[in-house]
Amino acid sequence: MRKLTVAGITAVVALAAASAAQAFDPVVEAENYSKGLERQSIYLTPDYQAKLRLISQQNGLNALKMQATDPAREFVSDLCWNGNDGCAGDIRLYNWQTKGYGIVQPVLFTARDGATLSGHVWATKAGPVNRPGIVITNGSVQADEQLYWYAAQALAKDGYVVLTFDPQGQGQSDTAGESPDQQEGTPAQTDGRPFFDGTEDAIDFFLSNPSHPYEPVPSCNSGTSHAAKQEQRVAAGLDAAYNPFWKLLDPSRLGIAGHSYGAAGVSYIGQWDPRVKAIVAWDNLAEPNPNQSTGASGGGPEEKSCVDASQRTVPPITKPALGMSADYFIPPTPNTSQPDPLGKSTESLAYSKLGVDTGEIIVRGGTHYDFSFIPNPGFTASLRGADEITWYTTAWFDRYVKGDRGAVRRLLSDRWRHDSAEAAVDPNGDGNMFSFYYRSRLDIRLPGGGRFDCEDMRPGCPGMVSDDGVNGDYSYLSVDTAPDGAGRAGTPKGTGIYGTG
Fold it and tell me: Does some domain include residue 296?
């Protein structure tokens, strides 16, 4: 890999600065916007729809059974409580353990306000004895954990232990807390704490073990401890006392990722919690402020946090963080004029000013739903967005959580400028997946010294590499559904994040 000199870095910056904004063209915009129809080519096939109906029925029956056998829980008022249809996620990823792709364990644990939270812990049988860990925080409303299993399974195949969970009010986690904290975190979409404090509770559970069983911290509203509820439910065989895969987990290497409201949550918790090493924020990286108005979510309610009232301040930015976004937000709306090319990069640029490694990758033609797999035409998304998202997410954590110097090759990869699978579905045969409206950027330290600073990855920059160590097109589906132990990190030749031939 070629190292950039100071002169080279200056040239890169100059090249980015000289990149002129294109004149707005309604025809080009219509073609770009139409890319949101691409993902439905996966799930509108007769075979997929038949399997989706079956999975939806099974999910609904399982949800009713859970409610009947555990009547103390109350999650049926959550939008995606039954896992039907658009709440099912990518049904090609179900039965992950029974098909021999990896191992997974469902878990329940008690949040600080007494709500029961539902989740899954993912790993593989093959792999090192001690592995780094990742916690993934959902977005809000129609954003249950199943929608993020595509990324969780890919990370597990890459040698991580991964926790996905439903924040309070999402999926199959309780809508409300326990007395006297029934209203803490409700409704989740206007309170926001389930995505901030819920992330912290999930980390605490994830890092628990038999010597240090999970115990929720006191509630925010009243300071009440709901540890007794956790202990009672553990004794009854309902809640998990600790992370079932604790033996595999190296607690000193932890990364967190989140989508939408969850992205705002991890943007704060990642800087606030000293246990976190790196952050990936899916639409989009936000200011690490526990009392912000939602900049990351396009404007909205104040996001509150009560991780520790005495420390409810903006922490310094010291941890590397990757922001990822897409051309269109929610609801996806066509552009009527040329948008600000730096409009998605505000926080990433703030990181760069502080000398902290960062990036902002914008999916061309993608939407807010590219980051969550929703098999319903009402939630438009591009075909290849989830693959690009998984690629950069995994590479970022490999570099900054695993400490893998070789992961830089994948971060600097030129492949997403000429992706053949993208070219095959694009209206104009364009294989470049970086937005032409917004500038994707990457500003990171190089292992041998110096920096790579590319302010517009679509045209490319000196230092990007064609040999990133992976043969052929990358596909999260190929990674997720490879046999456990097939090649390094369970990835097959030519399709995984590690090439094997």
Answer: yes
